TrEMBL record, chains A, B:
UniProt name for this protein: Probable 2-phosphosulfolactate phosphatase
Key words, A-Z: Hydrolase, Magnesium
EC number, UniProt record: 3.1.3.71
Top-level class of the enzyme under EC nomenclature: hydrolase
Coiled-coil residues: none
Signal peptide: none
Family classification: Belongs to the ComB family.
Amino acid sequence: MKIEVCLTPALIDLYDIEQSIVVVIDILRATSSITYGIENGAEAIIPVANVEDCLNYNDKGYLLAAERNGEVVVGYDFGNSPFSYTKEKVGGKTVVLTTTNGTKALHLANKRASQVLIGSFLNLDALCDYLKVQDKNVLLLCAGWKDQFNLEDTLFAGAVVSKLRQYFEHFDDSSVAAEDLYGIAKNDLRKYLNKSSHSHRLAQLNIEEDVVFCLQLNICQAIPVLEGDRLVKLAV
Amino acid sequence: MKIEVCLTPALIDLYDIEQSIVVVIDILRATSSITYGIENGAEAIIPVANVEDCLNYNDKGYLLAAERNGEVVVGYDFGNSPFSYTKEKVGGKTVVLTTTNGTKALHLANKRASQVLIGSFLNLDALCDYLKVQDKNVLLLCAGWKDQFNLEDTLFAGAVVSKLRQYFEHFDDSSVAAEDLYGIAKNDLRKYLNKSSHSHRLAQLNIEEDVVFCLQLNICQAIPVLEGDRLVKLAV
């Protein structure tokens, strides 16, 4: 079995994923918030491509979440800050979510993969425990930033490769690179990400608390899985 | 001024390179051999996209070089082994060359960039000495392997970033990653590349001598530059 890392959604067509599990990764902040929301009892999170698509769910009693370029879109309940995905706010609710990068990656994966899961540092161990016993190829799909490579998603992919190395045989060059970068960064992920361009973008948005939150390891057990067009809690 | 690393040709459209110098990188083996050939007095090397295009130059007294999937195409004078680009073989000659990845990357860059140069470990310092005084943005374009990320091209990009860090202000996430990977690998590039998928491919082709040759630092002063459709020696 093999693990590969797709460094940006723009490269997804290079991978044969019909029989694979695809893990979508958008650490800052979509897949961290989705993990946290499902952990906190959200019934489902529906990823949609466009802000306009969110509005189609307007009269169904759903929470509407929309983020573009790191900010909550005016008029929406919230965006993709993990602090909006607490028990109090999303427990028992369905959230309709659109984000700059994460939801696009989800839709690309959903077209072709055998199974689509959500990964984040928050559920790293739970995710790896699941993947290592599935006997399936794994593609770690980094959402990146507008089709560009980014560090934080690559570091998480590297964390997964590092955890799963003993259970898989084949690794592509990008998984080797991701694992080695994680090796450099793992003792202080926040400090390492100061090197990243996205970090500067985020600093301007004044969401340092979000960044620190999203870099916590293993505070969640839930693995969100795409069923049809809805992300729900995987039964394990 | 900024340095960016385009990790595969499939991502080139994400970069605004009209005013930039683009350095094309295909360490194993096209840009190493091109550097060595120009260093050794080849009058010009003409990169062409297809094997068939080589044949258009059949009756002009040029040397015809064609490589696909790591092997010399049957009927051609040679492929992209650096040992075919010695003084004796290419001095004073024009070579028409097509390769799996390198020539494709060259043509993509040539459509839009301000200037297109050839980089390899063989001319690392000469290249960096030139780039640091040009007052232009630099894009390091990794040729990769069939649009996939590869380690050896990324390591070279990282070597350039490392050399030029003090002369530039802005670095994208992929240049940060490339530099850090080079930091891990630089003390024994050959050993590090044992981790790579391409390394296994190359082992099967029995070209270990080529790999070792292409990882030598600074044995050349020449910087090949694209002028029209021909790579010639840059006048510095």
